[in-house]
Design goal:
The protein is mostly helical. The chain is elongated and about 75 Å long. The termini are far apart. It has helices spanning 2-6, 19-41, 43-63.
Length: 75
């Protein structure tokens, strides 16, 4: 009898314990769907940006010094 009284009514679906957390997660899901819709509508531009980012990453990897210690440190 106690389990029946403390269980949520049928049909309400799962509820999180913290309403603020549920609101935050719903906000994140809404923003994600907006961004995903934009990316899917602009696939060629997304590909160009992705390839540009990859090219810039490779270029910077090649020109940035990779030594842990400076060359002047001789002690």
């Amino acid at each position: 009898m106690m389990a029946r009284r403390s269980a949520p009514p049928k049909g309400d679906g799962p509820k999180l314990v913290l309403p603020g957390l549920e609101h935050s997660l719903n906000w994140i899901i809404d923003r994600y769907s907006v961004i995903l819709r934009f990316v899917l509508q602009h696939q060629p531009a997304t590909l160009v940006v992705t390839l540009g980012t990859l090219a810039l990453t490779i270029f910077l990897f090649l020109i940035i010094p990779k030594g842990f210690f400076p060359v002047q440190d001789t002690v």
